[in-house]
Amino acid sequence: MLNISCDVSNWACLRLLLVLVFSANAVFSGTIVKTLPGFDGELPFTLETGYVGVNKSELFYYFIESEGNPKEDPLLLWYSGGPGCSALNGLIYEIGPLAFNITAYEGGTPQLEYYPYSWTKTASILFVDAPVGTGFSYATNSDGYATSDTLTALQVYYFLKLWLVDHPQYLKVQLFVGADSYSGISATILVQHILDGNGDGNWPILNLKGYILGCPRIDGQINENSKTVFAHRIGLVSDELYRATKESCGANYYGVTKADSACYENLKLINKCTKDINKNDILEPKCTWASPEPEPLARRSLEENSEDFMILSPDFWCHNFNYSLSYVWANDESVQDALNVTKGTIRDWKRCNKSLDYTYDVTTVLDYHRNFTTKGLQALVYNGDHDFTIPNVGTQEWIKELNLTIINDWRPWLVDGQTAGYTIKYSEHGYRLTYATVKGAGHSPQEYKRRECYQMFDRFIHYYPL
């Protein structure tokens, strides 16, 4: 395990440390995992787990080598949103080569199956539990748990550089930064850190090719405003109420107070129409649920701050029920031993930790994206078209703010001859941005349309049009 004594704000210290580490041929922690509880036989892919120490914190990672050509396939750094949702969520439920056998579960250690439509078919993926306090990542003292949008971006940047020092063969391949949901904020800043570090000649130089953002939060005001627009477009709000709200609010629905009486009252009516809608997927039932309790009917809110706690019949399916096995599996001592989790560091693993010591210190990263348009990067941004948490209309709005040139106009993209969503491609000064919707998907799209999202990623990463 590598421990870093430099403060994350001290660039000179970090750079010197990296040089000293590399020159000394130091070996970082990381163990190849050949078997996992619940999986029959040896894993049919290369899995490495370990920690990288950054600023009083130990960031836990899962690295899966490309099942294609790892010497040439790109490296994708991936972490989940929340903030505080474990990268295991991405690995098991979204883009990795494993999945739980949910239908056959009868108790005990959940069974894992190999999932064929994994993004690791064509890329090596470095999953990291970030920020600290997420998943199996932990701080070495209480002060280390305090983090924020800006600190998360810095920590992940240093984590990535340190990991690549120990895995120099991946410095040669193309690098993509990937994240979803709220991590769209810190991942954007992370991309900027990489560009700045490369521009300043900070060692090692990272071979950044682009970034991939799923249902990302980019601008708070645009995102919150888009929810009212989306609610109307999708048919949750009447034309009359929407027009009245738009007129009384001046098309600004963010941060409205009681002082704006007419606007405030209209927004209350809209909220009344939508409060019982599942925000992650408007077509699915709304329910809140968390880690399994011994009693079969015991349910507690997954979101500790949820205002609308609804308990449904145990025979009633809910999307959140799919998450149950991750709590059972990841809290199993034999699983943590197999993953080489440091004993005594995690008392209760949570898929999404809602008790982080986290400061939300960035409201928009739109200017970063404006800067990216001059850097020749490749970008893929996508949304589920039934996502009410990060609505597709908001994502399209901030992309329009970049004033890019359309090179392939709005059209359907297909999987097996069927419309999988819609896409549009932009270009400016060598920068390429592909935007896609995923038809019928919620938040995050890979959980709902896993195979279609694999096809989307596979085409993008090989520079094929969707």
UniProtKB/TrEMBL annotation:
Q: Which domain of life is it from?
A: Eukaryota
- Gene Ontology BP terms: proteolysis; secondary metabolic process
Q: Which InterPro entries match?
A: AB_hydrolase_fold, Peptidase_S10
One example of the protein's molecular function in GO is: acyltransferase activity, transferring groups other than amino-acyl groups
By sequence similarity, the record places it as follows: Belongs to the peptidase S10 family.
Q: What is this protein called?
A: Serine carboxypeptidase-like 18
